[in-house]
Design brief:
With about 80 residues, the chain is α+β, with helices and mostly antiparallel strands. It is about 30% helix and about 30% strand. The chain contains 2 helices and 3 strands.
């Protein structure tokens, strides 16, 4: 079995109003050292070992459903785990 961790973030060229709101809130709490905040999402998937090409499989899922490829970037980590 594979454990896949997918990290999705807005592209640098895309404005992040939610990140700006969090940055403003942090500054209002005196965390003024924070220079920038970008909000993203994290997904954790468990995938059967019988997938022929795990990289192609994950990329296809990300590009068809898990991300908006127009405004988001993604990266992922794959680790093999022993099923319990």
């Amino acid at each position: 079995m594979y454990k896949v961790k997918v990290y999705v973030t807005l592209r640098e060229s895309v404005l992040d109003p939610q990140g700006n709101a969090v940055k403003g809130a942090l500054h209002s709490l005196s965390f003024n050292a924070v220079q920038d905040v970008r909000i993203g999402k994290y997904l954790e998937l468990k995938i059967d070992q019988d997938v022929a090409d795990i990289d192609t499989f994950v990329k296809e899922m990300c590009e068809k459903l898990l991300t908006n490829v127009v405004i988001e970037d993604y990266r992922y980590d794959v680790e093999e785990v022993v099923a319990q």
